[in-house]
Design goal:
Blueprint: H1 4-36, H2 38-49, H3 58-94, H4 100-113, H5 119-133, E1 144-146, E2 153-155
Antiparallel strand pairs: 1-2
Helix pairs in contact: 1-3, 1-5, 3-4, 4-5
Length: 156
């Protein structure tokens, strides 16, 4: 059976996941740069203190948010890497129509880890559903039985 649609959708989603992992690492590097460089930190503090509604005590809240985003970005990176691994397992199991049920399960779980409503997850959901719903075409097989009365074989 031809599983071209599932292969294409899963490969596209794997490419998008790799792009997402790379962008997440770039975001982590940017957040670490903001937190660690005193010149950038003082520049942000000076810019925020020009706002009259902003209080000096709120500065720690802003940099606390940067710290929380750093931890959250690690969670996103780990989830994306697991999603990429599951997608690759699904691609390998769908190749040559080896195990479409396993591939469908891997695609759906990988879609959940890639983000509930991201483009990557939607592509993986579609590929997973296609793995479960595509059935091989029926083949007409003539079944013969041994007729005890005439001694000949005839089709059923």
């Amino acid at each position: 059976m031809n599983r071209t649609a599932e292969k294409v959708l899963s490969i596209i989603s794997a490419v998008f996941t790799v792009i997402g992992v790379i962008l997440s690492f770039i975001t982590m590097a940017f957040l670490n740069y903001i937190k660690s460089d005193p010149a950038v930190r003082s520049e942000i503090e000076a810019e925020l203190l020009t706002d009259p509604a902003f209080k000096p005590g709120d500065m720690e809240i802003v940099f606390g948010i940067f710290d929380a985003l750093g931890g959250f970005m690690w969670l996103i990176i780990i989830a994306l890497i697991i999603s990429l691994i599951l997608t690759i397992v699904g691609i390998v199991s769908i190749w040559n129509n080896k195990n479409p049920k396993l591939a469908g399960t891997m695609f759906i779980i990988g879609g959940l880890l890639a983000g509930i409503l991201s483009l990557t997850s939607i592509l993986l959901y579609i590929a997973g559903i296609l793995c479960f719903t595509k059935k091989p075409p029926l083949q007409d097989k003539t079944i013969y039985t041994d007729d005890q009365q005439e001694g000949t074989m005839r089709p059923l």
